[in-house]
Amino acid sequence: MKFFQTLILTLLCACLVYFGFIYVSQIDQVKKTASPHEAEKDNDTALAAEETRTTKNTDSSHTSLKGSKKAMDVILYNQMDAPRLYNGCEVTSLAMLLHYSGYEQVTKNALAKEIKRVPLNYENGLKGDPHDGFVGDMENGPGLGVYHEPIYQLAKKYAGDQVVDLTGKPVKKAIYQSLEKGYPVWVITTSNFDKTNNIETWNTPNGKIDVSFNVHSVVITGYDKEHVYLNNPYGEKNQQVDRDQFEDSWKQMGSQAIIIKA
């Protein structure tokens, strides 16, 4: 009797295992049958997610381009190229601006000969005023530089009424709107494109002025939300510079800007 009971229990267990296996196989088959559709849904979800990411990236790219101007292809002149102008960044930058505006034969050295000059030191102890002309020795030093008024007058000898002096205007109007219209901008800044602590007060024939031997001139060729791009007459084309720092240095040096309209 015990033997038959054990046999019956064994058969029952075997049946349960068999039917359980059949059930699991059917469930698995259902899953396999449904999986192509599920995969398609997964693919659709992935594609939708990718489209969303792409759209976001595209929107972000467009956003980053708003309020920007791709750097223009303005010729680069190096003030240190022979014949060297050791302190000639202002006329070298003006030569770039004139070339872009169609005055291609004008050289930095020709402009250096034409720019008005004043002494670095007068016999009476006064200092030269860069608003009057280039102060000191442009070719070899010592020298300071020249501001927008003499540069404006020199540019007008070539481009006449096309030359516009935007000095004193807000940075948006003087620089960024000019760039958006396709006009590179001649500016006065500092040699490291940031505010400087190297400021001196000079007594000149026109009164006291603040000057810095860190003064520098470049041509602004483009900008975006974080940078300005400039032709540096020390030898770098479309150099990328922090926009906020540049604006600080430009304002510190008197917000000087000149363009030549086409």
Automatic annotation (TrEMBL):
Highest taxon listed in the record's lineage: Bacteria
Region feature (Disordered): 34-65
Any matching Pfam family: Peptidase_C39_2
Boundaries of every Peptidase C39-like domain copy: 73-234
Record's compositionally biased regions (Basic and acidic residues): 34-56
PANTHER family in the record: LMO0724 PROTEIN, PEPTIDASE C39-LIKE DOMAIN-CONTAINING PROTEIN
Protein name (database record): Peptidase C39-like domain-containing protein
